[in-house]
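re the bet — no i am not wrong, look at it urself. input seq straight from the record:
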Amino acid sequence: MDRIIEQSKWKKYRPIALLALTAGVIIIALVLSAQGGDTLKIDNRRIAISTVEKGDFQEFIPLSGTVVPIKTYYLDAIEGGRVESRYMEAGTYVKKGDKIISLANTNLLLDIMYREAELFQQSNNLRNTKLAMQQNRLSIQSQLLDLNYQILQSKRVFERNARLAEKEMISGEEYESSRDDYQYLIKKRVLTLQSFEQDSIYREVQVQQLESGLARMQDNMEIVKQNLDNLVITAPVSGQLTSLNAEIGEAKVRGERLGQIDILDGFKVSTPVDEHFITRVQLNQLGHFSISSNEYTIRLTKIYPEVVNGQFRIELEFDEAEPEDIRRGQTLHMRLELGNSEQAILLTRGGFFQDTGGQWVYVLDEGGESASKRVIKLGRQNQDFYEVLEGLEPGDKVITSSYRQFGDYEQLFFKNES
């Protein structure tokens, strides 16, 4: 009797197990592919490939400058005051000496009046001192005249008594009295002369001091009067009054900027520069810009070393004739040369630098079917190229587009997708 053999359970579920195993392998492969590995296939039509070459390298920095007048004169309030009159409007052409605005300052007027009173008093003191000197001189001269007369009379008496005393015709007391009178008058004359000399010296010093003080006061008065004249703001040069910040009745303090006058005979370019280049920017460096398909050269003529908000400012003037269609306030996009042109190995700029920091690149193999990582070292850069210091040679082909989609693969294989 035949026995029914039961089918094995493994054979029954084997197709299902094989299907599950296959699915697991596929999932694991996908996971490994997503996590990265040694190689990756990419479409070479979606990347940028550049050839390393050797050529002239000119380092420059891109700048955006503003066209400004070649010379600008600022109008500042030398003396503060209230705006009393406004003779010109912004935008008008002014000639040298034209009145622009006038200020009123009551305190300055009172100061002038006070100084004038002091000057008048000092002048009177000097006049009175000179008059006293003259009167004292006349008084001393009168005293000397009397003394000389008295001395002459006393001398005659003394000499006559001396002759009489020799003949014993007068007493000794009378002789000695005439002698003493004569000697007293002689000594008195000497003292009077000394007193006159000392008083003259004192008076001369006093006059010199008064004259010096009077001169200083007169100089101060002239300065104060100049300040009074400075209340009227006039044009220092002929040009265009491009700005005027003064309204009738408005109070202005000393040193406040009131406006500016531009000389329109020529233009220059003013531009900020990142402080990173402050040690590399030098006078007479050249810049280049284009207007209407024409190339122009501009030369650095002034550097302002003060750094504000991470930038310092420079000024450049046109090396040759100015462009005919240039206008004040126009923005120019320039390239400022930072050194002389030199031979170097050049790599075209691209998005790879943001992903690798310029430390490595993907370099194509000889057949051009794959690319591998290679460590490099870059130096200077300009708007078009990086200077290659190590790792690349002329003729090498490098992927220069962004590496963001490549992950961390060591090698890339190219495939063409139709």
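see?? The mean pLDDT is 83. told u. also The first helix runs from residue 9 to 35. so pay up
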